[in-house]
Structures are given as C-alpha cells and as structure tokens.
Amino acid sequence: MALAYDPLFITSDKSAMDVPSTPPPMMLTQDELKRIAAHKAVDFVESGMVLGLGTGSTAKHAVARIGELLRQGKLENIVGIPTSKKTQEQALSLGIPLSDLDAHPVIDLSIDGADEVDPHLNLVKGRGGSLLREKMIEGASKKFVVIVDESKMVKHIGGSKLALPVEIVPFCCKFTAEKLRELMEGYGCEAKLRLGGEKGKAFVTDNGNYIVDMYLEKDMGDLGAVSDAILRLPGVVEHGMFLDMASTVIVAGELGVKIKNKHSSCC
Ligand SMILES: O=C[C@H](O)[C@H](O)[C@H](O)COP(=O)(O)O
C-alpha cells in the first residue's frame, strides 16, 4: 500500500517545519521514516563519486537504494567505502564496487545514521559497535550526510540515559572501564562492558576491540573537553561523540522531512 506521505513537504527552515503544510499523514513506522531519510540522502549521490557507506538499520536503506540505482543504470562509476563488515557484505551482495581509505583517502560523500543528534549537529554513534571505522571514513569525507528518524533528535547528546559508547583495547578491559567511570564520575556515570559476543562474552568490534557503554545522568557541557579527556586515557581507542563532523542531517518525522545544514541548524 502506498504511504500517505507528502514527499514535497521538505524544509530546511525551522519556522516552516513548525507549521505543517499538510494534514498529518497516517502513522509511519520508525523503519519507514528511516527509509525516507535514507532515500532523500541518496539524492545527493552522483555518478563517479567515492562514497562512505554507513552502518545500521537506517544506513542499510541508503546502501540498498544506491545498489538499486546502480542496477537501474541511474548511477555509474561509484566506489563504496564500507564502515563495517556487515555493510561490506550488504554492498557486495548488491554489486556495489568497494575500496578502502588507503586507496581512496578522500571521500566525496558519506551517508550514515546516528543514535543521537543535538541542535548543533553533534552526534552520538556506535551503539551498533561501528564507531571507529565510521569516524575514520566520515572524517575523511568532504560531505557527511546523517540520516535519522525524529526520535534521534535530542537537546544534549550523551544525556539521554542511553549509552555513549567508547571502543577500548581488550587488554585489561575492566581497568580501562573503571578509569572511564572515574573520569566521568562527575556526570553520574555508570560504565558497562558491552556483552553480546559468543557465549555471553564481551562484544567484539570489527577491529577486535571491546566497547564500554557509558550511561550518564548529567549533560556533559563542554563536549570538546570531555572528548579530549576520554581520548587521553590509555586503552581507549575512540569514542562515539562525532563533534562538528556532520555537514547535513536529514530528519524524517511524521510531518515530513527536515534538512538541517551545518552552521544554520541551531536552536
Ligand atoms: O555503530 C553503529 C552506528 O553508529 C549506527 O550508525 C548508529 O548506531 C545508528 O544506527 P541505527 O540507524 O540502526 O539506529
């Protein structure tokens, strides 16, 4: 059944977004909203581009769409740089030619989901465990388009009582988790080693590392200072705060699609 969704209701203007131009459409599922945001992002893709391919339940719709356009001959000469083994598998199954950052150190456009987005377009990512490769690839991108459903929009990242993931080396992981907890104690932090690996063991990232999920009770305030402090801890590989990296965030909600661009997004 066709969705009762008005694709023409797209705005990058806050005031316009606040006043819906169409009656509320029928309820869309979260997955339908994710797909709508993903397809809108793929409109930015042009033939000949080197593309960062994101990971997760939203990004998979973008990868599928890119595969579909290639198959239809509407896109040509695309090279994809996958941000995880899972995305690599999906892209290969769709016939998307793949490469890596060694061969393509500059990426034209990356498209990926996020766990949280604040009004300045700072992100939390990595609840799916792919934050390191994502940060490397998206950080090497001329344009980074983030795709989310409206449930991901928050006032302050990391303060939602959902996890801020930190990738750490497996060596003495409890020691590093405790150091993280101590560092973030002032924010009411609980630090948990992520499980979900074989036989209930630790979750292992594509890079052979572990993840500590930090649950914070308070907002972090100076995100840059917190980021630096986390990265200074020996044993930490990377964290899931993506500060000042997104060029554009595409938010799909019940009332339409909102496009937020860097430097014109705030408040
Ligand atoms: O590690 C996972 C990635 O950062 C994902 O992009 C993020 O967790 C958002 O995933 P989803 O689109 O499934 O909510």
Number of domains: 2
**Helix-strand category:** alpha/beta
Spans where pLDDT lies below 50 across 5 or more residues: 1-10, 13-24
Write down how many β-strands occur, each being a DSSP E stretch of 2 or more residues.
14
Largest sheet: 7 strands, mixed
Relative helix content: 25-40%
**Radius of gyration, whole Å:** 19 Å
Cα-to-Cα separation, first versus last residue: 37 Å
Ligand list: ribose-5-phosphate
CATH topology of the largest domain: Rossmann fold
The strands making up the biggest β-sheet line up spatially as 1-14-13-7-4-2-3
CATH architecture of the largest domain: 3-Layer(aba) Sandwich
Shape label: globular
CATH class division of the largest domain: Alpha Beta
Average pLDDT value? 90
Strand content is 15-25%
Number of helices: 7
Q: What string gives the helices and strands in order?
A: EHHEHEHEEEHEEHEEHEEEE
Q: Summarize this, please?
A:
This protein is an alpha/beta fold. The chain is 26% helix and 23% strand. Helix 2 crosses helix 3.
Structural overview:
- With 267 residues, the protein is α/β, with parallel strands linked by helices.
- It folds into two domains: 10-154 and 244-261, 3-Layer(aba) Sandwich (Rossmann fold); 164-239, ACT domain (Alpha-Beta Plaits), CATH 3.30.70.260.
- The protein is built from seven helices and 14 strands.
- The radius of gyration is 19 Å and the shape is globular.
- The two termini are 37 Å apart.
- The structure holds ribose-5-phosphate.
- Ribose-5-phosphate binds at residues 54-59, 112-115, 125-131, 134.
Walk me through the topology:
Layout: E1 10-11, H1 14-18, H2 30-42, E2 50-53, H3 59-71, E3 79-82, H4 85-93, E4 107-112, E5 116-117, E6 123-124, H5 131-139, E7 141-149, E8 164-168, H6 173-183, E9 190-193, E10 210-215, H7 223-232, E11 236-239, E12 241-242, E13 248-253, E14 256-261
Parallel strand pairs: 1-14, 2-3, 2-4, 4-7, 7-13
Antiparallel strand pairs: 5-6, 6-12, 8-10, 8-11, 9-10, 13-14
Helix pairs in contact: 2-3
This protein binds ribose-5-phosphate (R5P).
